[in-house]
Write a structure and sequence with these properties.
12% strand; two-stranded parallel ribbon; alpha/beta; Rossmann fold; 434 Repressor (Amino-terminal Domain); elongated; 9 strands; 3 domains; 271 residues; 5-stranded parallel beta sheet
Length: 271
């Protein structure tokens, strides 16, 4: 049988307000009183009713986190850090996955509004400031990544992708590679465009101008990571690269046909 806060208060010999203060840590309570309340909580196996608390206080303990797809290896570390920071401060996190779908994104915004979250961090460039108006209109602060300039109830975190891309390119150069190709993300994705431009300009500046720049529009949702791998492994992708590289071809002495040395070998070609 579920026990109530009133029963906990009666067993501990304190008021309902004191039990609430002990459980929420909102005011100073003597150690003796705190011990009696917590002993009663353990005895009754009592848990706070968060829904009732939200109704009573008019505030939730939730923060929202919006990502594009859980399968993307970029997000787990962000989720872990965000949850840890919230949890350490007594809050929970509502994680929403847009799967790059505009209608789903709209539904996510409505869900966050209905859940009365304290604030929302949006770490996918598939969501822009115009799609968050429902949240800010309700007084819910929003933090975006690489979006428009910050404004009322809207923050913006800018990531220096160029710095990381240049370090990666320098590593490739130091390994001795001298042939490159770029597989870019969707043209309507701000982050993908930023990274593609940084790759092309950085490679070109170091004498590794890409022989191909693919602007492949991969299928959305949780399949996107798998689609990228399939695209990289595709024979058509390899052929496109090889057509641009005459030194990756040879001639079969028996048939006289032109044969390729392999896209992998081409891209890994070193001096």
């Amino acid at each position: 049988m579920a026990h109530t806060m009133r029963e906990v208060a009666r067993r501990a010999g304190v008021s309902l307000a004191t039990v609430s203060r002990v459980l929420n840590g909102t005011k100073y309570i003597s150690e003796e009183t705190r011990r009696r309340v917590l002993d009663a909580v353990r005895e009754f196996n009592y848990f706070k009713n968060v829904h009732a608390r939200r109704l009573a206080t008019g505030r939730s303990d939730l923060f929202g986190l919006v990502i594009s797809e859980i399968a993307n290896p970029y997000f787990p570390e962000i989720i872990r850090g965000y949850q840890a920071m919230a949890w350490n401060r007594g809050f929970d996190v509502l994680i929403c996955n847009t799967e790059y779908d505009r209608e789903r994104t709209k539904a996510v915004m409505r869900k966050l509004r209905e859940s009365d979250v304290r604030g929302v961090a949006i770490v996918t460039s598939s969501v822009d400031q115009s799609m968050t108006s429902e949240l800010t209109a309700a007084g819910i602060p929003v933090v975006l990544c690489n979006a428009e300039p910050a404004g009322k109830l809207v923050g913006n975190i800018c990531i220096e992708y160029e710095h990381g891309v240049n370090k990666a390119i320098q590593h490739v150069v130091e390994l001795g590679h001298r042939c490159s190709a770029v597989i870019a993300g969707p043209a309507d994705n701000r982050t993908a465009v930023t990274i593609k431009n940084a790759l092309v300009s950085g490679l070109t500046a170091r004498g590794l101008k890409p022989v191909c720049v693919f602007g492949k529009q991969l299928s959305g949702g949780c399949r996107r990571v798998g689609s990228a791998r399939s695209f990289v492994a595709s024979r058509n992708t390899h052929r496109s690269i090889l057509r641009k590289r005459s030194d990756c071809h040879g001639r079969d002495e028996r048939t006289g046909r032109v044969r390729s040395a392999g896209a992998g070998r081409c891209l890994c070609h070193r001096d």
